[in-house]
Amino acid sequence: MPLKLTRRHFIASGTALATLGTPKVYAAGFDELRARVNEIQLLPEKYGQTQIWGFEGSAPGPEIRAVQGTQVQRRVFNDLPDPTSTHWHGIRIDNAMDGVAGLTQDPIQPGESFDYGFILPDAGTYWYHAHNRSFEQVARGLHGALIVEERSAIDIDHEEVLILDDWLVDPETAQIANTFGAMHDLSHAGRMGNYITTNGTYNLTRNVKRHDRLRLRLINAANARVFQLGLDGLEGWIVALDGMPLAQPKSVDGLLLLAPAQRIDLIVDVTAETGSAGHIVQLDRNESFSQVAFEVTGEGSSARRENPKPLPPNAYTKPDLASARNLALLMEGGAMGGMRGATMDGQMSSMRDMMQAGNFWAFNGAVGGMDGPPLADLSLGETVRLKITNDTSFPHAMHLHGMHFHEIEPNGSLGAFRDTTLLDRGEVREIAYVANNPGKWLLHCHMLSHARSGMMTWVDVA
Ligand code: C2O
Ligand code: CU
């Protein structure tokens, strides 16, 4: 890793630190979760306050933390000027609690509330976010961490939940740019922010001791940014992806890609010298920035530990590829994609007609959404093998609700077990899963502007 790291914010160098205070942590049980408008010090203080939409008025919202197998109950109040809903991303949940406005529930109208209650079947790092007009509501701040603890303790000294985000902010006014649904964002890489934060601050710093062992739970809450991360002064192992433990910890020996909605759990040992700092490094256009700094204030134990053990596995049925039903999803459209038209609301439409409706992408030749027919009607317990072809000029992060899937390795074996998979432009990836959760489950690009403009479908598991 390059050693000359800078902390940056979006225009000039900052003077004071922006602090949001420690988010409230609720015990499992019934609680209010109020989505509301608030003014917070998002930017360094010389810029003034920013109006956000946040759960309990903060962005990220309060961390929800509970033990595997227990229940979470939240009454979500909508104090926003717009209808909303709340999705519990990555949880193998009852369909009625999935929080997809327009598919699994009606949106919660301003002044109204909705009761979400669900069991947490799997330990891991999850998150929750608005799921109505997500391309605007998530960008305004409606998201937070949902942490499901293992039933047994993990051998670490500290744990940090790190929510990476980017914001599109006008530095003159300190306000979030009101350009939601801009044609360029819909048709290109999505809404990219100009101000990058971790847990709502641009210079998150933690004090650690040398040789401390940390568990870092990284969550990408950005609308479209794929974070490219590295470690400096930290030796790390990936222990889980999208909440699900790897069979064996995998040592970090290069860049980590964290696409929108994805999570990576790392175990890291602090190897930086006392008086210096370790960093999570973010790479952007050949420059490196410190995303999170770990200042080493002293010596913990005098020696390194053994390599970490795997996390306890979650109980999940492995797909049997031999009996799988084969499905295909062709992703087309967008700028420089060469698509000439697609079916929209059942009618063949030109690209120009599509654009007029703010649609730029198609799945299997049709502008996607929740109103059209499902990609597939699946019977409960059926195994699916889905070939996704990204025939566009942009990367996409495809997310399936309700069930995790395996990425299939080029050699045909079952690879990483995730809920969101990143496909680079031109890339083809097969995924496989057992459709063992009944209901209507969305499958969409988590570049949220893309989901808004055609990259959305669903499967019906009956
Ligand atoms: Cu994290 Cu359909 O979303
Ligand atoms: Cu996309």
Using the coordinates above, name the CATH class of the largest domain.
Mainly Beta
Radius of gyration: 21 Å
Strand count, sense and barrel status of the largest sheet are: 6 strands, mixed
- For the record, the count of structural domains works out to 3
Instruction: Give the overall shape.
Output: globular
Residue share in helices?
under 10%
Structural class comes to mainly beta
- Treating each run of at least 4 consecutive H or I residues as one helix, how many helices? 4
Question: Which ligands accompany this protein?
Answer: CU-O-CU linkage, copper (II) ion
CATH superfamily of the largest domain: Cupredoxins -  blue copper proteins
CATH topology of the largest domain: Immunoglobulin-like
Q: How many distinct beta strands?
A: 35
Sheet-strand content, in percent, reads over 45%
Give the averaged pLDDT, no decimals: 93
CA-CA gap between termini: 49 Å
Enumerate the spans where pLDDT stays under 50 for 5 or more consecutive residues. 11-28
As laid out across the biggest beta sheet, the strand order is: 13-10-15-20-17-18
Which CATH architecture of the largest domain is right? Sandwich
Write up this protein:
With 462 residues, the protein is mainly beta. It folds into three domains: 25-151, Cupredoxins -  blue copper proteins (Immunoglobulin-like, Sandwich); 161-299, Sandwich (Immunoglobulin-like), CATH 2.60.40.420; 321-461, Immunoglobulin-like (Sandwich), CATH 2.60.40. Helices cover 4% and strands 47% of the residues. The chain has four helices and 35 strands. The protein has helices at 134-137, 183-187, 351-356, 448-452; strands at residues 25-26, 30-40, 50-55, 63-67, 71-79, 86-89, 113-119, 124-130, 143-149, 158-167, 169-170, 175-176, 195-198, 205-210, 213-220, 227-232, 234-241, 244-251, 256-258, 263-270, 277-284, 287-299, 325-333, 341-344, 347-350, 361-363, 376-378, 382-391, 396-400, 405-408, 414-418, 420-423, 428-435, 439-445, 456-461. The strands form eight sheets. A six-stranded mixed β-sheet has the order 13-10-15-20-17-18, with no helix packed on it. A six-stranded mixed β-sheet has the order 26-23-28-33-30-31, with no helix packed on it. It has a five-stranded mixed β-sheet with strand order 1-4-9-8-6, with no helix packed on it. A hairpin with a 2-residue loop joins strand 17 and strand 18. The radius of gyration is 21 Å and the shape is globular. The termini are far apart. The site of copper (II) ion has 5 residues, from loops.
